[in-house]
Every structure is written in C-alpha cells, then in structure tokens.
Amino acid sequence: MDENAPDSLIPYDEIVQEALRAVVGRVLGQVEASGGHLPGNHHFYITFKTHAPGVEIPAHLRERFPDEMTIVLQNKFWDLAVSDAGFTVGLSFNQMPSKLVIPFAAITAFVDPAVDFGLQFQASLPDAEPEPHEDAENDSPEAGPRAVPADDGSNVVTVDFGRKK
C-alpha cells in the first residue's frame, strides 16, 4: 500500500477485529448449545488479557498471570455460558474450582489445534511488553508441552492494519 494513503474515516481494523471475535462467540455458543460437549477431537486454547475491562478471575490467578493468560477448554470445564459480549466458564486450577468471566474484547488468541485453526487479535489495551508467566495447567493432568499449531501459519488469521504513529 502507498505510504501516503490518507487515514481512513472508517475504522476497518476495529470492524474486522469485532467480526473475528464473533467467530469465537459463535463457536463457543455451539459448544454451549450442545450441553458443553466438544465434537470430535476439538479443543480450544483461549488467550486473553487478564486486566482488560470486564475480565473477572480469582485474585490468585491475576497475581500469577499479571498480563495475559491462556486457558484450555478440553476435558474439564463446566457452566459454559456465552453472551453477545463474552463468556463465562468454570475451570479448575491446582484442584481449585474457579469461575472466569471473559469479554470477547479481552481475547488476543483463539486456537483449535485439532484442526490447525487459529485467530490472533490486536490487543485492545495500550502496547505493553507482556510479562513472562507460567502455563495455566488448568485442564488435563498429564504433563508435557502443550499442543500448538504448525508454525507455517496456514490456518492462522492475523489482521494488522499498521496504524500510523
């Protein structure tokens, strides 16, 4: 694109981000409608900003994950409820049941490794270097590296409209 292109008066980047986050809502809504059962081998890694407006997580998780957290919806989750604005879900962390409230606007990544599908979103918070944190370890008891999609990006959608600074 031309570096001298005028700034758009239409917020395309925001519109596209909102539409892609709606994909997450639709997928989670289908899981909710099925009684919380994931079809086949599908499972989800959902990364979100822990201090984004509307995020509600226990204090011990916010302390452990001060910037970003990734949860896994696979074997052990309950009470999934999806709304237009976000979702709530019950998960266990170190044998402690917890309820999480996550607005779609707080999500920065959604991955379904079973089909090598992923979405990455622009952070809606001011640019900041994420602090290192431990894996959430909230789902399966077996230890080992978490599944990640192939690095080729074949099914990962990333939208970045390169804002002028």
Any guess at the CATH architecture?
Roll
* Structural class category: alpha+beta
Instruction: Please trace the helix and strand order, writing H or E for each element.
Output: HEHEEEEEEE
Show unreliable segments.
Answer: 126-130, 142-150
Helix content: 10-25%
Return Rg in Å: 17 Å
CATH homologous superfamily caption: SspB-like
Tell me the count of domains: 1
Number of helices: 2
Distance between the termini: 16 Å
Record field, number of beta strands:
8
**Shape by Cα distribution:** globular
CATH overall fold name: SH3 type barrels
Overview in brief:
With 165 residues, the protein is of the alpha+beta class.
Question: Would you mind describing this structure in some detail?
Answer:
The protein is α+β, with helices and mostly antiparallel strands and 165 residues long. The protein has a single domain (12-124, 153-158), classed as SH3 type barrels, CATH 2.30.30.220. The protein is built from 2 helices and 8 strands. The chain has a 5-stranded mixed β-sheet, covered by helices on one side. The chain has a 3-stranded antiparallel β-sheet with strand order 3-4-5.
